Amino acid sequence: MEVLCFGVEPPGLGPPHRAVGLIFSMLLGVWSAQALEMSVGKIPFLQAVNGSTVMLPCTYSSCIGIKNLYFNWQFNDNGTMQKVCESTIASEEVEPNVNVLRERVEFVGKNHHNNISILLWNITFEDGGQYTCFGRNPKEKDKNHSAIFTLIVVDELRVVDNTLTIMIASAVGGAIALLMGFMLLKNFTLFVISKLEEKNKECLVTSSGIDNTENGLSGSKADSKPTPKKK
Q1: How far apart are the C-alpha atoms of 211 and 5, rounded to whole Å?
Q2: Which H helix or E strand runs over 9?
Q3: Which of 115, 126, 156, 228 is placed for a possible disulfide with 109 were both Cys, Cβ 3.0 to 4.6 Å?
Q4: Which parts of the sequence belong to the Ig-like domain (predicted)?
Q5: How far apart (Å, rounded) are the C-alpha atoms in residues 22 and 120?
Q6: How many CB atoms lie under 10 A from the CB of residue 79?
């Protein structure tokens, strides 16, 4: 006997496959969190006066540690990347032997602080531009990362004129003080008026009692008569 099946579809991918996909995504997220990261701080730029000495900050981080971490600093000279310095850090707590490739540059980083910052002495206008801090970690299958720091060289630092800000702050402060004074005066006036009203009411009550006594009303002294004597 033949059995005919109509509209029967092969079984689809069920929840186990979705679970595998979720686990894979989680593992990928964990791997991304462990990746090497280079950082030049929350403010990636600096304005400095010509002839001064400045530090270009950079630190690295890796959740799984480092092994033979390669790093370098590069300067963008009108589109041409020039190495400023480079070195390899064998492992944590080992200070690198840095090869400096540019004049007036000093490595001031400390590996036990994950610090690979450099110092620029007696900067000139030609030193202004973008500096890239680059790192590559073989322990993370040569995972690499970079961060850019911008140096701006000027003749002199501009003094910010805060006159307008001070004027606005003074006006706002004066308005608040005036409003508070008005509220205090209003509350004091209401307090005085309420006290005067209470005093007037007391005067009216006292005056009413005196009038009743003089007019000989019931309960007053005029109503009192001597008790007749018995004969």
Answers
A1: 116
A2: none
A3: 115
A4: 51-150
A5: 48
A6: 5
First to last CA, the chain: 147
Measured in residues, the chain has a length of 231
Q: What is the pTM of this model?
A: 0.58
pLDDT in tens, the chain (231 residues): 444 443 444 444 455 555 545 444 444 444 445 589 999 999 999 999 999 999 999 999 999 999 999 999 999 999 999 999 999 999 988 999 999 999 999 999 999 899 999 999 999 999 999 999 999 999 999 999 999 999 999 998 877 666 777 878 888 888 898 888 888 888 888 888 887 877 777 766 666 665 555 555 554 444 555 566 555
What tokens appear for 50 in the block? 């010509």
Q: What's the rounded Cα separation, in Å, for the pair 83 and 77?
A: 10
Q: Which amino acid is at 170?
A: S
For tokens 């973008």, what's the residue? 130
In the block, residue with structure tokens 């595998």: 20
Closest CA to 91 of 59, 68, 117: 68
Q: Are 27 and 50 in contact (CB under 8 A)?
A: no
Task: Establish how many alpha carbons lie within 13 A of residue 195's alpha carbon, considering only the half-sphere containing its beta carbon.
Answer: 6
Which of 43, 56, 73 minimizes the C-alpha distance to 118?
56
Q: Which two tokens stand for residue 155?
A: 């003749």
Tokens for 35, please give them.
């990746």
